[in-house]
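Job type: complex structure
Entries:
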Amino acid sequence: MRWIWIDRFIEFESGVRATAVKNISLAEEHLHDHFPGFPVMPGSLMLEGMAQTGGILLGEKNNFEHVVILAKVPKLEFHSWACPGDTLKYTATLEAANEAGGQVQCVARIEDRLVAEADIVFYHLDQTDPSVAALDQHNFVFSMNLLGVLDVGRAGDGSQ
Amino acid sequence: MPTEEIYEKVKETLVDALGVDDDEVSPEATLVGDLGAESIDFLDIVFRLEKNFSVKIPRGELFPENLAAADSGFVEDGVVTASGIDELRSRMPHADVDKLAADPKVENIQDLFTVEMIVKFLDKKLSQS
């Protein structure tokens, strides 16, 4: 299982807004324990999807020059369930960005129904800092696998 | 913007960012000691202040970084050196560096970050723009 909680970008306005979809499938192992007889997408994984959407939006703005990590979630609200067969749409809007990091506001919807909202603050880690270079990149918002999600949208539509 | 108004907006910003109550915020309150701020919160506070006051706050201008770095020459044996104090005075004219100079231990540096300090910083910034 790969730690990729978004399937494809359907909208990407560099430095402004991005929308990614996540299709929820009964084939996802954790759904059978969460909860037995009542499978619903865990809130923490929706947050991860929103963070990945927002993190890529922020990272792309700087051409992925910095390592972007999740630093703080000032606001997180869940409004309704997300179930197998649903298609979640995460829309991230870039609220602030500077050399140190950035902040996004993200909304998760299924069709028009509001599912979750979050404010997320990201930090940039400096690649030249020796303590960063030693860290395993797998835990960060970016890895080569996750960046591949950006290509899925491009190839499918022909357009961006 | 009058100082009173700046203070009220800074108070609101800190209540949002740090999840503290309105009455916990006073001008002398320190961000870290009294209001429980962590390093992660500093960036959030900068972003919110930028938004609420429509200003740009470049990295390190409000909250200087790398003050206590080993090779900076500003700290020795857990004490801020004279050149360190000078550096702080020049980088943070809005802070009460005299107070730190009276007891210049490294762990007291974070006490420079008070609500009052932020208000003074914004007062100056807003009158410049």
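Summary: The CA atoms of residues 7 and 119 of chain B lie 6 Å apart. The two ends of chain B are 11 Å apart (CA to CA).
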